[in-house]
């Protein structure tokens, strides 16, 4: 019988838990709908612009600071030809 009493107590606590959750869900339904400050389409455009900018900044930092070259040289075709030749060294 002790086992049966424990099951009844557990069932009561589950019912109480469900009632508490329904009260909480009711308060959630009354919440104001959030309006995004930056729309999703604008976020996509921002990310699409920031990726190339970060690649350029990374190349300038890597070539100018780490590589002891001039950071402006990353915009020259000869620099990229030289880097390509180093990578594809035979």
UniProtKB/TrEMBL annotation:
Q: What Pfam families does the entry give? A: EpuA
Show the stretches that span the lipid bilayer: 40-66
Looking at the record, which segments are called Disordered? Answer: 1-28
Q: Which residues form a coiled coil?
A: none
Q: Which GO terms describe its cellular component?
A: DNA-directed RNA polymerase complex
Give the compositionally biased regions (Polar residues): 1-10
Is Nuclease tagged as a keyword? no
Instruction: Return the Basic and acidic residues bias intervals.
Output: 11-28
Q: Which UniProt keywords apply?
A: DNA-directed RNA polymerase, Membrane, Transcription, Transmembrane, Transmembrane helix
* Top-rank taxon: Bacteria
Q: What is this protein called?
A: DNA-directed RNA polymerase subunit beta
